[in-house]
Amino acid sequence: MPQPPKRPAASTVNKGVLHPRNRHQGRYDFAKMIKACPELASFVILNPYGKQSIDFADPAAVKVFNRALLQQYYGIAHWDIPDDYLCPPIPGRADYVHSLADLLAESNGGVIPRGANVGALDIGIGANCIYPLIGHHEYGWRFVGADIDATALASAKAILQGNQLTKTISLRQQPEPNSTFQNVIAPEDRFDITLCNPPFHTSLEEARSGSRRKWKNLGKLDSTRKLPVLNFGGQGAELWCKGGEARFVRTLAEESARYGQQVFWFSTLVSKASNVDGLEATLKRTNAVDIRTIDMSQGQKRSRLVAWTFLSPETQQQWRLTRWLKNAN
After folding, report:
1. What are the distances in angstroms from CA 72 to CA 28, 30, 229?
2. Which helix (H) or strand (E) element contains residue 121?
3. Residue of 177, 310, 148, 188 whose CA lies nearest to 251
4. Helices 244-256 and 276-285 sit at what angle, rounded to 10 degrees?
5. In the beta sheet, which residues pair with residue 294?
6. Which of 82, 88, 160, 230 has the smallest CB count inside 10 Å?
7. Does domain 89-203+231-325 have CATH number 3.40.50.150?
8. Which of 166, 316, 194, 327 is nearest to 255 (CA)?
9. Do 158 and 126 meet the contact criterion of CB atoms below 8 Å apart?
10. Which contiguous run of DSSP H or E holds residue 195?
11. Alpha-carbon distance 286 to 279, whole Å?
């Protein structure tokens, strides 16, 4: 199994416990990143410890930084998003993908299923298209990305076209804001995994308040320069919905039961630990066969993913034989 490239020991510091296959261990090698993406050079600064970094309060710097990461580590030559759309931290997104690969391996005798026969559905692909770009590069999976936002889908389409990925990553628009899988999963579809990064907040003001707390904790509120209203950007549907994360993941779980024989593992990130119990209770009511909660961390940030399946052990074995083992030879 290919391992992520190692950086020189001199550039390595502890950044939190990332997945062993995550390519973003240790400090970033800015010389290599600038070589892959020369425009990054104008955004590099020295942090208070004298180390190269960028100003994460500068949306333009964060966007170019992500572009450089995608170019250096994932071979993405063309990547851009509209202003004020979510520009996510890539290491944490990669951890989610690698954790799902481990989950598939547990269901496949310890071997990660790879290649285009493995289908993944990204609920809320956003303008950035991050999960499909990472998942396809690392494991060759085929992706469908769904979103309610036409502008986000247009941005994702431009990224796919710019990198010749339209044959392996396709897009679908969700016409109903209060639905997740309905209108997206067709009767003939079969997905090995689904991913979702749900909106966390209950309102736009709550999202803004969270950003203000972050800037205060970072000591930036005293700055005379104007700070972005939302750290990492984000449109309404990316950041908040009525009822917040708790309601969104409950709806996700309830709808998933209708498609339980078309998907092997459903999954979602859950940012707030107190929402896990409610999600698990909903899944038990919908008769999920197996429920997993997997902790993840990136620096000081703690999160977890919850995964579940409605397939019986017998159906799981048949799925493995017909979709993974049959195409592994």
Report:
1. 11, 10, 29
2. strand 119-123
3. 177
4. 20
5. 305
6. 82
7. yes
8. 194
9. no
10. strand 191-196
11. 11
Angle in degrees, CA 189, 97, 257, rounded to 5: 40
Q: What token pair was written down for 198?
A: 């749900």
- pLDDT tens for the chain, 329 residues long, are 444 433 333 223 334 689 999 999 988 999 999 998 999 999 999 988 899 999 988 889 999 999 999 999 999 999 999 988 989 999 999 999 999 999 999 999 999 999 999 999 999 999 999 999 999 999 999 999 999 999 999 999 999 999 999 999 999 999 998 899 999 999 999 999 999 999 864 545 554 555 445 545 545 545 555 544 444 454 445 444 576 889 999 999 999 999 999 999 999 999 889 999 999 999 999 999 999 999 987 656 678 999 999 999 999 999 999 999 876 65
At position 14, the amino acid (one-letter code) is N
* Beta bridge partners of residue 265, listed in sequence order: 193
Cα–Cα distance, 237 to 241 (Å, whole number): 6
- What's the CA gap between 154 and 158, in Å, rounded? 6
Could you write out the DSSP letters of every residue in 78-100? -----TTS----HHHHHHHHHHH
Taking a C-beta distance cutoff of 8 angstroms, is the pair 174, 122 a contact? no
Q: Per the structure block, which two tokens stand in for 227?
A: 């700070």
218 residue type, one letter: L
Let me know how long the chain is: 329
